[in-house]
């Protein structure tokens, strides 16, 4: 991917991000507080543009680059503002609770999907996408279980649409459920699909929510390795899909199990914990991460076709939505059960 191929798409995302940042600035001057953050504006503008105009091939690579690579860079930079001491301070109970939530989420999702009549492999993709990290989990698990391309496409399509809905709607739980910034960070980390999307869901609330949410989400993402290994062991026991040719299960590499940006985040967090990143550098790095996130949310919006829901069927819609509701409920019960304040 060369600079000339990604430039038009990046410029388009920059334009939407610029308008979004300007809109937030107008809000701040008029209302003294941005009730609709630039992140949210960027997503909505991106979706609006995508609804009336589908970017052609000139823009697609740059949009994809902005939605993935630039967002991953933003996650890495966020590590500079977080000390790994927070992991120890979070306590063993929370760490165990995160693992338990992932396991319960996967089990409940598979059960819901099977009750609704979805194929076993489709059920596994939906479950892992919901419970761990959306597209990344789907991409890692799919070759291991020999999933059909149509099932992979449907799972990823729903992840894209519901991921945006989660980013937009989850902050409503702060007033509706009476959550503190810390509690909301835990909820976001346990329910939002992708690590970068945690930023979009928590930045409008507070820095504490962002830090806690990212920390919880990272622990959740690290569950991907054990989950992929588990499904690789049972893959041969799955019956073939009707009419599908037998497939040989594959084994993903290390970068599929532990994405590079997770390692980068942990590296910067370690450097911050060791005092290798000066305090004066933290604010500029955080601002840069914030702008890259707005830029990437514009790209994310441009990649969402809201009409996709009508094409994949009611059972899949109900299964994915029901699985997500279960995950939110389990997460709220965990927060109350552990008495997180």
From TrEMBL:
Pfam families in the record: Cons_hypoth698 (PF03601)
Cited InterPro entries: UPF0324_pro
Signal peptide stretch: 1-25
Subcellular location: Cell membrane
Domain of life of the source: Bacteria
Signal is among the record's keywords: yes
Membrane-related topology note: Multi-pass membrane protein
Keyword Cell membrane carried by entry: yes
Keyword annotations of the record: Cell membrane, Membrane, Signal, Transmembrane, Transmembrane helix
Regions crossing the membrane: 35-53, 65-88, 94-116, 123-146, 152-174, 186-206, 218-236, 257-277, 289-309, 316-335
Family: Belongs to the UPF0324 family.
Protein name, UniProt field: Sulfate exporter family transporter
Species for this entry: Methylobacterium cerastii
Lineage: Bacteria, Pseudomonadati, Pseudomonadota, Alphaproteobacteria, Hyphomicrobiales
């Amino acid at each position: 991917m060369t600079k000339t191929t990604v430039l038009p798409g990046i410029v388009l995302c920059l334009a939407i991000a610029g308008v979004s940042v300007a809109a937030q600035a107008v809000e701040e001057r008029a209302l003294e507080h941005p009730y609709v953050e630039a992140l949210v504006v960027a997503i909505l503008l991106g979706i609006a543009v995508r609804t009336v105009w589908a970017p052609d091939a000139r823009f697609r690579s740059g949009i994809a680059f902005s939605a993935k690579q630039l967002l991953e860079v933003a996650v890495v930079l966020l590590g500079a503002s977080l000390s790994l001491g927070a992991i120890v301070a979070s306590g063993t109970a929370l760490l165990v609770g995160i693992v338990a939530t992932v396991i319960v989420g996967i089990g409940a999702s598979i059960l819901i999907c099977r009750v609704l009549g979805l194929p076993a492999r489709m059920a596994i993709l939906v479950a892992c996408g919901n419970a761990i990290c959306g597209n990344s989990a789907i991409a890692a698990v799919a070759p291991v279980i020999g999933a059909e391309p149509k099932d992979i496409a449907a799972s990823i399509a729903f992840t894209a649409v519901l991921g945006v809905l989660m980013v937009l709607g989850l902050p409503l739980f702060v007033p509706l459920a009476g959550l503190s910034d810390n509690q909301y960070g835990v909820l976001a980390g346990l329910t939002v699909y992708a690590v970068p999307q945690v930023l979009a869901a928590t930045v409008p609330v507070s820095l504490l929510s962002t830090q806690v949410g990212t920390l919880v989400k990272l622990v959740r993402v690290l569950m991907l390795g054990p989950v992929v290994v588990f499904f690789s062991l049972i893959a041969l026991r799955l019956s073939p899909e009707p009419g599908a040719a037998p497939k040989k299960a594959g084994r993903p590499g290390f970068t599929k199990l532990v994405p590079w940006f997770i390692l980068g985040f942990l590296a910067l967090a370690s450097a911050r914990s060791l005092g290798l990143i000066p305090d004066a550098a933290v604010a500029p790095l955080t601002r840069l991460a914030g702008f890259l996130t707005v830029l990437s949310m514009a790209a994310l919006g441009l990649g969402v076709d809201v009409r996709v829901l009508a094409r994949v069927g009611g059972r899949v819609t109900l299964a994915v939505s029901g699985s997500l509701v279960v995950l939110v409920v389990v997460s709220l019960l965990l927060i109350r059960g552990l008495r997180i304040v």
